[in-house]
């Protein structure tokens, strides 16, 4: 079990996926503070945070401790496989968002992200949440979801970073 009462952590995960290591992509990190954890927007989260046992455990412990979880863009992949004690997905029944299929297609076509992501983030979030995935009406437009009952905050894409940060500040100062 990770100690949530210890000093702030900068958890370094990844470096195991050969494609990203070979192409000098940075590994994924999670910013962990005593009050919240945030998963980043970089697409490597699809490869490491989504399946990394430490990431999954940390997110489950933060949820169980009633702490805030913030997920932006591809960082939402970190929540896809997190399960509650009874085996249900942590995000089941909750509105969620993350990089959409259309944004993924456009980013791949414009060589912003490499082709061949391991799964569709939109589809995986929709399945784990029980068809609660939401997205903005227009690709690349900001879309933020705050679920105060679970202390889950989501931003769909990089354009959502600023409004997501504003919502996090509101939650932290309530």
TrEMBL record:
Family indicated by similarity: Belongs to the peptidase C56 family. HSP31-like subfamily.
Domain of life: Eukaryota
EC number: 4.2.1.130
InterPro entries: Class_I_gatase-like, Prot/Nucl_acid_deglycase
Annotated protein name in UniProt: D-lactate dehydratase
Reaction equation(s) it catalyzes: methylglyoxal + H2O = (R)-lactate + H(+)
Keywords: Lyase, Stress response
Gene3D superfamilies: 3.40.50.880
Gene Ontology CC terms: cytoplasm
GO BP, sorted A to Z: methylglyoxal catabolic process to D-lactate via S-lactoyl-glutathione
An annotated Gene Ontology molecular function: glyoxalase III activity
Species of provenance: Trichoderma semiorbis
